[in-house]
């Protein structure tokens, strides 16, 4: 059995022209999409609320009740946190739900824990955003938590 080889000969090229072409393509791709949009998730069309509804921001916060030292945030500690940290920042109202959370720890282990979910509907202004961030920071600090999950979404509401 004999092997045959195909011989191909390329014409000489100017490497500078190739690099310039690649740079122009890369710059064109960056210019086609604003940087902020490129970093964010794909944008969706603006939400349109029905008659009688009001556009608001919905934040859902997930507070794990397990502690690093092996203990848990007690019911009394949770109630005190709600009264001290959440009520003053959102006196118009919020909802608290009991849940069971599951997540992957830094060491790869799957962890399940009792969780409190807090849902807040607000105007989405800077003051409300700051209040949410303060609540999260306070919980992490008081109960030595690694994180608090925050989920944000636009919502149409009717009271």
Characterise this structure.
33% of the residues lie in helices and 27% in strands. With 159 residues, the chain is an alpha+beta fold. The chain has a domain at 54-157: Alpha-Beta Plaits, CATH 3.30.70. A four-stranded antiparallel sheet has the order 2-3-1-4, covered by helices on one side. The radius of gyration is 26 Å and the shape is globular.
List the helices and strands and how they pair.
Blueprint: H1 15-32, H2 35-39, E1 54-64, H3 75-86, E2 95-104, E3 110-122, H4 126-142, E4 149-157
Features:
four-stranded antiparallel beta sheet, Alpha-Beta Plaits, alpha+beta
At the third CATH level, what is the topology name of one domain?
Alpha-Beta Plaits
Helix content: 25-40%
* Poorly predicted spans: 1-11, 15-38
Shape: globular
SSE pattern: HHEHEEHE
Number of strands: 4
CATH-level-2 architecture of one domain: 2-Layer Sandwich
Strand proportion, as a percent range, falls in 25-35%
Radius of gyration: 26 Å
Mean pLDDT: 81
Largest sheet: 4 strands, antiparallel
CATH class categorisation of one domain:
Alpha Beta
Terminal-residue CA separation = 84 Å
Helix and strand composition category = alpha+beta
The spatial strand order of the largest sheet comes to 2-3-1-4
- Helix count? 4
């Amino acid at each position: 059995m004999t092997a045959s080889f195909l011989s191909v000969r390329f014409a000489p090229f100017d490497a500078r022209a190739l690099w310039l072409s690649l740079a122009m393509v890369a710059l064109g791709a960056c210019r086609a999409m604003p940087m902020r949009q490129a970093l964010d998730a794909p944008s969706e069309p603006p939400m349109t609320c029905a008659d009688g509804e009001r556009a608001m921001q919905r934040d859902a916060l997930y507070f794990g009740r397990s502690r690093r030292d092996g203990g848990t945030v007690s019911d009394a500690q949770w109630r005190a946190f709600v009264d001290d940290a959440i009520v003053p920042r959102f006196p118009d109202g919020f909802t608290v739900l009991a849940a069971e959370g599951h997540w992957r720890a830094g060491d790869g282990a799957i962890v399940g824990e009792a969780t409190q979910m807090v849902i807040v509907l607000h105007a989405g202004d800077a003051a409300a955003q700051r209040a949410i961030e303060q609540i999260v920071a306070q919980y992490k600090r008081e109960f030595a938590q690694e994180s608090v999950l925050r989920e944000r979404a636009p919502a149409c509401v009717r009271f």
